[in-house]
Amino acid sequence: MDILDRQQEGPIVYMNRTHTPSFWTKFIELRETDRLQHLKKMVEVRHESGQAEEEQTGWSWRELLNSFFGIKITGDGYKGTRKSPDSYNLYNRSPDFRNNYGWSIALDGSDYSALKHSGIGVYLVNLTAGSMMAPHLNPTATEYGIVLRGTGRIQIVFPNGTSAMDAKVTEGDVFWVPRYLAFCQIASRAGPFEFFGFTTSAHKNRPQFLVGANSLLHALHGPELAAAFGTTEERIKRVLDGQREAVILPSPVATPTGRREEMMILETMEEEEMIMGF
């Protein structure tokens, strides 16, 4: 938290820390007409983003019904149009990713032709007890999920870092994650956590992971990343190299120990899980 809270600036920060004016200081220094124009752009971008998300979601539901179930939405309701395509058994497909803590499968239009017409992708994830799908975001699609077995938690955060949802889910529950919002799925210690779902794009989703050995932060490692967090390169490197696993991360008891920092992190995670009832 110390690293994440150090930088209080917006998307553009000063490399020279001798003078770092606050956002509101810079905003007040603008001319009145420029301030109004800036606020107008912020409102328009927010409005357009919301409209695009609504249109994309509505279109995906219509195409899903049409392509998978032979149902077409008309002004009079639902109407059958054609025979459904052949089924596809996800359990017969080898996982796209697997380690000691779980596996995941993602299906898109290049794997199953019916998805090209529906405009959606399908996925299946299985996490071992206490494991977590590393925090990540979807750059191209909204994600919908259905819990098939087990219990776990779904955590989602807004782009500004505040919590959008932190909920316990169990078999039969449905959840959804808007595009661009960071999130993770965590299995309870009671047993495996398995969920299935779809994304609103038939192209490869290519989720961007925020932590782990394949974190996108590794590609940005350097003085620029350190300046963005308001800390040193050495400290950023220790943080990035702290997690050796990728995509699916182990529970605290399965994580290698040995360093004082790691032990402190594990103790904190265990305390939080006890508070949440896991």
Give a brief outline of the structure.
With 278 residues, the chain is an alpha+beta fold. Helix content is 32%, strand content 26%. The chain contains seven helices and 14 strands.
Please characterize this protein's 3D structure.
The chain is an alpha+beta fold. Among the domains are: 29-80; 90-209, Jelly Rolls (Sandwich). The chain has helices at residues 2-6, 23-29, 32-69, 113-118, 223-229, 233-241, 260-276, and strands at 71-74, 77-80, 97-99, 102-107, 121-127, 132-137, 143-149, 151-157, 163-170, 174-177, 182-187, 193-199, 208-209, 248-249. A six-stranded antiparallel beta sheet has the order 3-4-5-12-7-10, with no helix packed on it. The chain starts with a helix and ends with a helix.
Coarse morphology: globular
User: At the third CATH level, what is the topology name of one domain?
Assistant: Jelly Rolls
Helix/strand-derived category reads alpha+beta
Q: What portion of residues is helical? A: 25-40%
**Beta-strand segment tally:** 14
**Quaternary assembly:** single chain
CATH architectural designation of one domain: Sandwich
Low-confidence spans: 254-269, 271-278
**Main β-sheet description:** 6 strands, antiparallel
Please give the count of helices.
7
Radius of gyration: 22 Å
Keywords: Signal
Pfam family, one: Cupin_1
Protein name: Cupin type-1 domain-containing protein
InterPro entries: Cupin_1, RmlC-like_jellyroll, RmlC_Cupin_sf, Seed_Storage-Functional
